[in-house]
Design goal:
By secondary structure, the chain is an alpha/beta fold. The chain has helices spanning 40-46, 56-63, 67-75, 80-87, 94-104, 142-145, 149-160, 174-178, 197-209, 228-233, 243-251, 253-261, 278-285, 295-301, 314-322, 344-355, 370-378, 388-420; strands at 19-20, 26-27, 106-108, 123-125, 128-130, 134-136, 164-167, 187-191, 214-218, 306-311, 327-330, 360-364, 384-386, 433-435. The N and C termini lie far apart (101 Å). InterPro entries: Aldolase_TIM, Alpha-hydoxy_acid_DH_FMN, FMN-dep_DH, FMN_HAD.
Length: 437
């Protein structure tokens, strides 16, 4: 019987000895991670299915995280001439760029360990509550951005509990805007003093009768600024048929269908206000000779809070107070009037320091985020007026788009307040912010 050869025994390999680390300490050997089959209950908690949004508008708004996202969406929803009418400014657009650059220079100085577990961004404007220190600013041609125009914006503002300001050049009438949003909605009326003083007083009386609580007179528009994009686009209302507009019809059929199948687009507040040649029409209706002396006429017709919108110097803010104004809006008209005008955020602290005990000081121009609002309030503004942001939302998604803008601004403001360590709006003060050189 043959004995099979023996297989030599495999020598045992000793476990690797712990190696000294570079620090000189002994490091234990690496252990393998034990694996197992997970239970379904464990897997299920990791799977989060996003709800399916049935419409393109809902998906578009859901994707938007910032106002800039809505601006990008708006660009694809309306004709180019309409988008650039909203987005553009006067002449070389230096003021538009400078207003944004000023907010880019903001540097916050947070208070850590401030105990701000809950923040309240609500405030009071001219004795009336507002859920945010934000007002939807008066903007012309709202129904170009979306066929519901001012109605959609006013409803969104009422739902959010913030004021909506209707312009004299609105495409929905004073009374029709007053009919939406409910009796508790906060509505302001923005007035241009016109050559026809009788018509001016009539508009004031209509606003008062319809329940508007604040009258804001825009004082920086004796004539219309030159908006070169509008000139180059041949902007008109309604749009003229050219090869470009015909192409726009093909690319934006929904916008055109809404425009053609809803009420005629006119200046709804001014009798016979056909806006076809809007710059010429405005220059023919507005009075470039209006002066501070005309405020006496306004005061006779209006006994509520009176605000002058378009103040750009401390001297004019002082004159506004001397002539009985209750508030001013430090404003560059969004960069749409005088190019190279002062930057409101830079002028704001001077006006507040000089006249903050006599006037409520508000700010507009360049505001795009809730952090911008926090910075302006910290520098002394009672609130910010926003125009382009809500128009971007209107173009991107109608009333739901305006809801989204207000939601974004509110969320950003509350987060900024948390991170600054403040729990109330009145705790935002100049010590928390500075403008970098």
């Amino acid at each position: 019987m043959t004995t099979p050869p023996r297989t030599p025994a495999t020598p045992e390999v000793p476990a690797p000895a712990p190696q000294p680390a570079r620090s000189g300490r002994t490091v234990p050997p690496r252990q393998k991670v034990a694996r197992r089959v997970p239970k379904w209950s464990e897997v299920r908690t990791l799977l989060q299915f996003e709800p399916i949004r049935p419409t393109a508008r809902q998906r578009r708004l859901q994707r938007a995280v910032t106002v800039e996202d809505l601006r990008a969406a708006a660009r694809h929803r309306v004709p180019r001439s309409v988008f650039e009418f909203v987005d553009g400014g006067a002449e070389d657009e230096l003021t538009i760029r400078r207003t944004r650059e000023a907010f880019d220079r903001v540097e916050f100085r947070p208070r850590v360990l401030g105990g701000a577990a809950v923040v309240d961004p609500s405030t009071t404007l001219f004795g009336r509550p507002s859920a945010l220190p934000v007002v939807l600013a008066p903007t012309g041609f709202c129904r170009l951005s979306h066929h519901e125009g001012e109605r959609a914006a006013a409803r969104a503002a009422a739902t959010a509990g913030i004021p909506f300001a209707l312009t004299t050049m609105g495409t929905v009438s004073i009374e029709d805007v007053a009919a939406v949003g409910g009796p508790d909605a906060e509505r302001w009326f923005q007035l241009y003093v016109m050559r026809d003083r009788g018509l001016t007083v009539e508009l004031i009386h209509r606003a008062k009768a319809a329940g508007y609580s604040v009258l804001a007179i825009t004082v920086d528009t004796p004539v219309t600024g030159q908006r070169r994009k509008d000139v180059r686009n041949g902007f008109s209302v309604p749009p003229k048929l050219t090869p470009r507009t015909v192409l726009d019809i093909a690319r934006r059929p929904a916008w055109w269908l809404n425009l053609l199948t809803t009420e005629q687009l006119v200046f709804a507040t001014i009798p016979a206000g056909e806006p076809e040649a809007h710059a010429a029409f405005i220059d023919g209706v507005f009075d470039p000779a209006v002066s501070f002396a005309d405020l006496a006429m306004v005061r006779e017709a209006w006994d509520g809070p009176l605000v002058l919108k378009g103040i750009q110097t401390v001297e004019d803010a002082r004159r506004a107070a001397d002539h009985g104004a209750d508030g001013v809006v430090v404003s560059a008209h969004g960069g749409r009037q005088l190019d190279r005008s002062p930057v409101p955020l830079e002028v704001l602290p001077e006006v507040v320091a000089e006249l903050g005990d006599r006037l409520d000081v508000l700010l507009d121009s360049g505001v795009r985020t809730g952090a911008d609002v926090a910075a302006a309030v910290a520098l002394g503004a009672k609130a910010c007026l926003v125009g382009r942001p809500y128009l971007y939302g209107l173009m991107a998604g109608g009333e739901a788009g305006v809801d989204k803008v207000i939601e974004i601004l509110g969320s950003e403001l509350r987060r900024t307040m948390h991170l600054l360590g403040v729990s109330r709006i009145d705790q935002l003060d100049p010590a928390l912010v500075r403008l970098r050189p």
